[in-house]
Amino acid sequence: MTSKQFVPIAPRRAPISTEGVIPWIRSNLFGDLRTSIATLFFGAFLFYAGSNFASWGLFSAYWLPDHEACRADGVGACWGVVAEKYRLIIFGRYPFEEQWRPLVATLLMVALLVASCTRTFWKPWLVVAWIVVMAAFFMLMGGGVMGLTEVETGRWGGLPLTIMLATISIALAFPLSLLVALGRRSDLPAIRSLCTVFVELIRGVPLISVLFMASFMFPLFMPVGVSIDVLVRVLVGITLFQTAYMAEVIRGGLQAIPKGQVEAAATLGLSYWQTQRKIVLPQALAMVVPGIMNSFIAIFKDTSLVIIVSLYELTGSLKIALSSDSDWRAFHIEGYLFIAAIYFLFCFSMSRYSAWVERQVNKGKQR
Question: What is the mean pLDDT of the chain?
Answer without folding.
Answer: 87
